[in-house]
Amino acid sequence: MKIQMPYARPKVSTPRTAPSLLNSEDLTQRFWAAKLELRFHADFGSAGKRTLLTNRHQGPLRIQKALYPEGPDCCHAIVVHPPGGIAGGDLLEIDLNVHADAHAVITTPGAAKWYGSAEGRGAQQQIEMNLCGDLEWLPQESIIFNQARGDSQIRITIAPESRMIGWDAVVLGRKASGEAFESGAFSQSISLSLASALEWEERLCLSGADPAMRSIVGLGSQAALNTIWAVLRERDQWSQEAQNEIRAQCPEIAWSVLSSRLLVGRQSGCGRALQKSRLRALAALRPLVMGRAALPLRIWAT
Fold it and tell me: Structural domain boundaries of the chain?
């Protein structure tokens, strides 16, 4: 099916950025911007609590549909980017707010593709999350094509009574197509603040020629990375029993408790195996964090 995109590619101002492998010229040569603002809020009517979604978009980044497969109190939303990939010069922004008593589950219908740029132009993704309610952030993986120059920034602020399960998966190159990530650059930062105090920050900066790609103290020639995190309410904490249960169900993931509320898991390997690991992690984490049974999202099966 062919999708025609009527959007113009406007020039936009240089966004704020964390340190990355992209230079200043990369960041000023933007020609296509897309922004999505999401607000999830709770409505208490005669039929009980319902999580409602309001959203605004600019350019080709939008919500496909709000779904309620678990009932009205939990809103499932699918973020779509109709062009199908992120090209050199693109800027994607998501501004996400989950209000108190609301519960949102957000995913994507397919992998995000960061295309190579023969001109060496950089692309950037900025995601801001402010949580006073509960969020499950479950996008599919990002595939970094050879010659891509990309920078991804995820910033999360979580209130004391909020809970979260989230992940980010990166696949370097396209192994199935015989394409390795041999040139280009990709940088990523994930920062998470609890009650406005920075609790955890993870940074990745790699170029195709980086020795860390092959070093045994780096990626060891593994092409894919999982980063998974789970945050409890302030009044709860990660007990040793809960940690043991998660490690028993997902032994291939290296889990670390970074605070009484925050659990982080890391893994490297091949893309297909890591996808299965994320699903096992969700099945283990969801009952403990959200008090809900794991629910495979239907969009992942299409």
Answer: 85-301
